[in-house]
Amino acid sequence: MNLIQQLDNMFNPRSVAIIGASNTMGKWGYNILCLLLSDKSREIYAVNKNEAEVIGRKAYQSVVDVPDNVDLAIITVPFKDVPAAMEDCVRKGVKSVIIISGGLAETGEEGAQIERETAEIGRRGGIRFIGPNCMGYFNTASGINTVIFLPPVTKGPVALISQSGNSGQSIITSASEMGLGFSKYVSSGNEADLRFEDYLEYMAQDDETKLILGYVEGFREGKCFFERAKEITKVKPIVIVKAGRTQDGARAALSHTATLAGSDEISDAAFRQVGVIRVDGIDELIDVSMLLLGQPLPRGKRVGILSIGGGMAVMAADAVTSQGMELATFSPATMERLDSLLSRRWSHGNPVDIGGDRFNYECLWPLIEDENVDAVLLISPTATRSFIDWFAVYAPWLTGLDKLRKVVEEQDLKELEKVKGMMVKHDKPVVFCSMGITVVREGGVYRYIEQNHLIPFATPHRAAKALARFIGYSEYLHSLK
Amino acid sequence: MNLIQQLDNMFNPRSVAIIGASNTMGKWGYNILCLLLSDKSREIYAVNKNEAEVIGRKAYQSVVDVPDNVDLAIITVPFKDVPAAMEDCVRKGVKSVIIISGGLAETGEEGAQIERETAEIGRRGGIRFIGPNCMGYFNTASGINTVIFLPPVTKGPVALISQSGNSGQSIITSASEMGLGFSKYVSSGNEADLRFEDYLEYMAQDDETKLILGYVEGFREGKCFFERAKEITKVKPIVIVKAGRTQDGARAALSHTATLAGSDEISDAAFRQVGVIRVDGIDELIDVSMLLLGQPLPRGKRVGILSIGGGMAVMAADAVTSQGMELATFSPATMERLDSLLSRRWSHGNPVDIGGDRFNYECLWPLIEDENVDAVLLISPTATRSFIDWFAVYAPWLTGLDKLRKVVEEQDLKELEKVKGMMVKHDKPVVFCSMGITVVREGGVYRYIEQNHLIPFATPHRAAKALARFIGYSEYLHSLK
Predict the structure, then answer these.
(1) Which range marks the domain in which residue B106 is found?
(2) Chain A residue with minimal CA distance to B303?
(3) List of chain A residues with pLDDT < 70
(4) Could you tell me if B340 and B468 lie in one domain?
(5) CATH number of the domain that B54 lies in?
(6) pLDDT tens digit string along B344-366?
(7) A366 vs A379: CA distance, rounded Å
(8) B28: nearest CA in chain A?
(9) Residues within 8 A of A (CB atoms), B 61-100 only
(10) Which of B102, B173, B174 sits opposite A355 (nearest CB)?
């Protein structure tokens, strides 16, 4: 069996045993069993050497006693008992194991010794395993999920590989709030057997995955990662949060997942050379993902800015140029069209500040159609609290506001559909930015922008930073041609 | 009358006339009149030369016809009619004016000429005015408010001066969402008469204001600003978003509010020398405000990190050191106490990664009490969705979850009160960070952290950036002693 087949088995078990199943709420062996039981499509077996029953189900003394094949064993026992549990898995003929238990290589020599011993038992028995010191995985296609305390995750094109369980939680939670759906996730832990680069190869050939995200503290085999990544990024983008940038961060990484972070400058250059998009934090990871999934690849770095207000226009211009992009010089035709659309107060150049005029999508079309513009940054009140709510409070004598609200929402939706159409037709990204005002997460407009990955960025700076990374990836792909 | 008395009159009018009052929803003269009418504590007069009534009230042909003193006139007429409206104000003896109308100096020579003419009329008549090309102001103490489309603003210690109306809107909206309350706000527009530095002087002596925020594109009299700021920052912190950092941004500022942004390096150094905290965007402005209002001034830059997870600990260590702060070296006593509180899996150093243990505030006290720690960065699940919600879905057989939820919330609240007490007692900031997971904006825990300005930051990077600015201000104040 090759790696892909092994991982396919790992991610699609028909029967699962949990070694260390517990009756105590809060313990890993209880919490994970709850999750496993919530999906009825496979057989679940509880293993506990001291209990006859766990959560009302028969418990087996050892995984060896389970009267069925066991496709996957999940080990949650204390660290000293891990090798024995692994031995049992070998005797049972289990081929896929997840070791949740921590307290191993990340804690010092005693744990490292036990971890090596466990890995050796697994290797001899032909077992592939995830962990130890991890939170397991999920696969939304097969429904298997061992990751506790997550909000509901929707199916989608994003795969995540995380060397940190809690960073993984944060990434999935934040991404879900932004409407991103997942194909597969794995919390890789200490990587005593399967490593980041193995999962990467698996996600690369996975049809459900269109975008691969990673949280990385260090690579066991950097060379291997970069070689594989180079091939993958031609087809699927890879975005990585590489933590342990600073000396102190690197030291913290060592005690966290026993990884050597390596020189930050070297990995920065290496990421760039293979087309991996490196970001600094979870917020940026999600920002870039939104663009990769929702926008056409830009052809260059000349940005047109359209802003509802002057202050935002200034901050956006700052953000765009400080991120290494350029402000586009509009064609005469664009200038003429804007002149005819806007009152004399508009800024007469890029950024387009519409002055005191009410925001109107008509001003966006000239920018999208201008050959001198590669991408548009749009600072508009999209999906923010409607001005109609304000009138309802301060002009209570006005009638028909509810009807007007409906009309405005329907019109906004139509305009957004047109924006999407223009983006696709002209192959040009239009990045939304919300002027720092909270997006209202309800109604048809929100549903539309969520589905199309157009939820506005909170600040021009965040929008520009994500756009710069997106353009960098686009330039990389062009450089290969 | 000195400037302070003049501005006191401006911010506390007993009677207001709106010149350009309108019956058309959406026009400035309609929208602002709605706001004015919503506060019954002063006389409001509508002026419109073509209408007999506006919003059901008698309209006067000219402000001169108003049968009462007019303390404040608000001008919303088209730009060409502004000088005549100002003449009328002079004839009426009005002393305070707000010119909302735009289309003046920011649009070119014709507008600049009209602006100069208007300013000259005002000067001769002894009028002080805000604007033109602005959104006016509010004063939560007197209840006057001309700023349309704002959410409800609560009274509080923050004053804001903004050279951009839309940036002001964004700042107030975002700040309100984070529980910050305001004393006064002014949108200063083109500053043809009253300037940023005048408002600054007024806010400095205002008893309701404890913190002054500014959005700045450029100063008309930089020297004057910096001299005044130097005196003020000894007593009240000033935080400024200075836009127009880049050449393109500066050019955009010119067409926005007709200001010359000046050299960015020079203003950066000048801000530092007078103790003004400069930030890059609205999000940072609010982040720093939370610390200034909610935290004791730190004595130094040695930061202790306590994290619920290893990945977050690594990113926090990166963030702290890349922002120029140091990771504290814990005293032996702190190490011993942490050893006794945590299982062997903890990271045994700074950052404190509690490993697989459940988060416990007990681990926070040693850090706060350690003389080697100046500030604590706490990455915890404070006010995030409770794990109990998760059990309610995945372990529906469990009873008593609602009761447990109450117990947990009460305990959390008690712990937070203890954190606050310890912060004050030891004069040490404890900066909360939420691991990227959305804070749940309801319940007693949220109300407590909102009132105490302890709402967790979304990422370690944002927390560290704000903390670094806060420490910079503290170091500045110490350097004066």
Answers:
(1) 3-130
(2) A248
(3) 257-262, 436
(4) yes
(5) 3.40.50.720
(6) 888 899 999 987 777 889 999 99
(7) 16
(8) A356
(9) none
(10) B102
